[in-house]
TrEMBL record:
Biological processes, Gene Ontology terms: DNA replication
Domain J: 3-62
TPR repeats: 136-169
Keywords, in A-Z order: DNA replication, TPR repeat
Domain of life assignment: Bacteria
Organism listed in the record: Clostridium folliculivorans
Protein name per the record: J domain-containing protein
Coiled-coil regions listed: none
Name of a matching Pfam family: TPR_19
Gene3D superfamilies: 3.10.450.50, DnaJ domain, Tetratricopeptide repeat domain
Amino acid sequence: MKDFYEVLGLEKQATKEEIKGAYFAAARKFPFDRYEEEFMDIRYAYEVLSNHKAKKEYDSIICLSKEIKENYDKARSLIEEGDLNAAIKVLEEILKDNPTLLLIRGLLAESYLKNNNSGKAIKIFEELTKEESENAAFLGYIANSYHVRGWQKKAIKAYEEALALDSDNISLWIGLCDAHTKDENYDEAKKVIEKAIEIQKEISFIATLYFRLIMLEISFGMNSLISDITDKIVVVAQNNSEIKEDIAWILCDISRYFMQLGGAEEAERLNNAAIEILPQDENVLDTKKEIENFNKYADLFGKLSDDEEIRQEIGVLVGLEVLPDSVLDLDEDGKDAMAYYNEYQILSQYDDFKASIQSLKKGYPEFYELIRDFFDKAANDGERRKMLKGYEKHSDRFFELINGSPNFFEGEEGESASDEVSTVDLNNDNVVPFIREEPKIGRNDPCTCGSGKKYKKCCGK
């Protein structure tokens, strides 16, 4: 595991200005919106090394006490692996003999918070902020603890105190915005971001703040305001070649998110901005194709989904052909498994599907043509028997994919069909995959609460 000097690419004799410069440089290399985990390491290293007392203590740990250093590194590794209970035990053991160590107490409090024990976390952070009232990082951590606990007024006050000490820490601005957002105060949340943009010197942080502003507008239904922000982001990207690709790719991510919400116009606008920045980029052009495909078929597919004459299995096959990957939220194996399962249902009960296939052909000829080859073979008795044998031969592989993925059978309340059906039975006519009426939020998509964090790091924990 890298020490904090290695994370920022610094020598141990680095000055405060050199530490800040290294923080900005590392943030440009690993921008928050694209490399969240790497950025958190950068942020933590900066917060420790930029505070004189915390830096001095860290230096003593890594230079003087081998046992404490090893246990400290062990705890950090356990936290990265998600074994919070084990990490907490290690940190508590260190503090038995060294109860005053600031870094260990702070890391223990962070571990408590991640382990859903905000009470213990708040107690430690309140002690630390009393002892170290000039430590912006500790004020930021207590603010985040209040935010997680739901005490937004306290969180806002603590974030403001932290920013008075360190306005360069982008995480503090984002935290303050999040607290106002959770408090449903759109105007104040927007003012925070606009103020941060005004005073921020690091260009990659300015881009991050503009993206946060976009997510704010989305969460509060102000989609009409996105164009102006997007234009400003394009200017930032065009004037800073080092972060052009990151900005373009993040614009693509947000445009895909808009597609999930049915916002085709906004998705296209954001992708056009990405094209303006990187006109030949493969990812950007792939996103453009997804949006064009979505615009071409979205309304018609919505009509098909509501058509009672079209069996659900047929609708799934059409969806796999016309919906973009960002809406399906399935990888290639997942799409193969879904196609396999629904095709098998049609082949094994073909007579029951004849009328629905004819309804598709008559009412939705564009969709019928997309899977015509399969239907032609299914209509031939010999071909159908041959296909059934082939499907049964490879069933084990697809069973594993279907039964192992909650994405295939997840209900609206997060329940899995596997709660009712423990295994997929090819002979069970009643097993039908759930078709989502609302867009599924992917683990890496922006959280719908408006915080701007990824779903997996916010409400999807």
